Amino acid sequence: MTDEQGPRYSHDIKAELFIVGPTAAGKSELAANVAREMGAEIVSADAFQVYRGLNLLTAKPSAGTLAKAPHHLIGTTPLHEEMNAEKFCRGASAAIDEIHSRGKTAIVVGGSGLYIKALTHGLAVLPQVDPKLRAKLNALSMDELGSQLANLDPEAARKIDIKNRRRLVRALEICLTSGKRASEQRTQWNAVPVAGIVDPGQPGSPTPATTYGVFVFRDREELYARINNRVEAMFENGVIEEVRAAGTLRSTASQMIGLCEIRQLLEGRMSILQCVAAIQQATRRYAKRQLTWFRRQTNFQPLNLSLLSHNEAVRWFLLRAERRKLSGVRAKG
Predict the structure, then answer these.
(1) How far is Cα 192 from Cα 198, in angstroms, rounded to an integer?
(2) Which residues are registered as beta bridge partners of 213?
(3) Is 8 in contact with 124 (CB distance < 8 Å)?
(4) Phi, psi for 260 (deg, rounded to 5)
(5) Residue whose C-alpha is closest to residue 148's, from 173, 130, 127
(6) What does the pLDDT look like over 298-311, one tens digit per residue?
(7) Which of 58, 110, 135, 239 has its CA 20 to 30 A from that of 297?
(8) What is the Cα–Cα distance from 19 to 300, expressed in whole angstroms?
(9) In a 3-state reduction of DSSP, which class is residue 105?
(10) Is the pLDDT of residue 71 over 70?
(11) In the predicted model, what is the mean pLDDT of residues 289-297?
């Protein structure tokens, strides 16, 4: 399918369940137990767990969790390859189609908002990377990149993290290659989203009931404590050696939280206590951004996991899945 903006990826996603939320909320373990009980399979929507390696740094599910149900798009991409929303859509759509071809339920689980929205809405194809242009832009300072973007696309310059070189460079690439503002193309989602995702043109509006999504979260103090504990466990289990052995990463993978800090530690520019504290802080800030995104961009049903035991949360999901199944049978009848 094409239009004046170019081809779009299909948004006809038939996943019966989306489980989204911030890092360290407990999505992976919850989803694995739900999938085991339902005979379902999980499609990960995590921008960094898709990479092969750096299992501790990306907080990949444990071997025990992965064994509870088939998982897709975890550890499938080499660290030296780029990953983006377009590639994710292709991989996730293929996985979901394959799961459904075997009569199974697909559960999309993750906290990468852009990937989830790209999957549910479809995504206009953006200009391909021009290696020469990228090299030229990468040679510029952050101030020069920000200044150029402000001139070409003021709206994008206001919204993009000015400390994120990769995003600044990509926005400029889109502007310079297409002759159009990156902010305009970034909002070219399909006009008919699936259920649970708010239409950008009509904030908060209901959407067609083709899927069911749950936004899981925890009370702030509990979530932050879980984040702090996870980071400490990463160091106890050998994340420093993991990063030391990783070698060269492409620009997408290099944005992993904690990578820069641990490399500074290895270079002697930061103590281990400073490193742990910096990663904890960066992860808490990331979780806060995720919470804001999902509250604003989706109308998925919220579920505070702080109010339930793990088993109660699993039963909560299973009960609603059964109700939806019965509702679907009645509707067909």
Answers:
(1) 10
(2) 18
(3) yes
(4) -60, -45
(5) 173
(6) 888 999 999 999 99
(7) 58
(8) 9
(9) coil
(10) yes
(11) 92
